[in-house]
Amino acid sequence: MKEYRRIYVVDSPESLPESSIVLGEGEKASVTFLVFPGVSVDIPVSVEFTGENAELSLRGIYICGGGEKVNIRTDVRHNVPGCVSDQLVNGIAAGDAHVTFYGKIVVAHGAQKTQAYQSNHNVVLTPSAKVDTRPQLEIYADDVKCSHGATVGSLNEDEQFYMRSRGIPEAEAKVLQMISFVAPVLDDIEDEEKKAELSARVEEAIRSII
User: Fold this and answer.
1) What are the structural domain ranges in the chain?
2) In what side-by-side order are the strands of the sheet with 130-139?
3) Nearest-CA neighbor of 12 among 44, 37, 49, 46?
4) pLDDT for 167-197, tens place per residue?
């Protein structure tokens, strides 16, 4: 049984995740991508289930603080029964950044017992930043568990007030909020040293766009 674990650090237009993954019977894939400030990039991720009882975990973070244009496209196709896919993409947009998330899940006729989940959550820090999110489900089987959701909003002012009442400066309170917002995306990384390294890079990136 094959198990794929891939982490893509997107800090230049050339550092893209591979465009397609095919999962056979019992295979597992864990894919995480991180888009750092200053990069305009297209990220296409295509996953096709061709064997039963396969699993996918797809995670992503984007942090944009200027005039970046980031397009994230995920296409996950459940062609056979009994497979599981779980997608979580969280991002932060500031400056004049424009981010598009287009996520599609297709559950084919006969792909019973499929579990497919997709979430995209976004924080917009400036009036000129823009996020378009378009999650989609196409389901042609009737015995499945599937969901998708998307949010676009600003930082929680009540949380900021609470932290500021505890003596935390406003700018630091915002940083802590944003770190907490994207942190769940990194939970899938089993290598603790790698997780700590990426967490530090994410914090540095967040501080750079405040």
Assistant:
1) 3-154
2) 20-23, 41-49, 69-78, 98-107, 130-139
3) 37
4) 777 788 888 899 999 999 999 899 999 999 9
Cα separations in angstroms, 70 against 32, 48, 101, 130, 149: 16, 23, 8, 11, 20
Residue at 33: amino acid letter: F
Instruction: Provide Rg for the chain, Cα atoms.
Output: 18
pLDDT band per the 50, 70, 90 thresholds, residue 150: very high
- Alpha-carbon distance 95 to 8, whole Å? 24
54-63, 65-74, 165-174: least confidently modelled range: 165-174
In the sheet that holds 3-10, the strands lie side by side as 3-10, 28-35, 55-64, 84-93, 115-124, 145-153
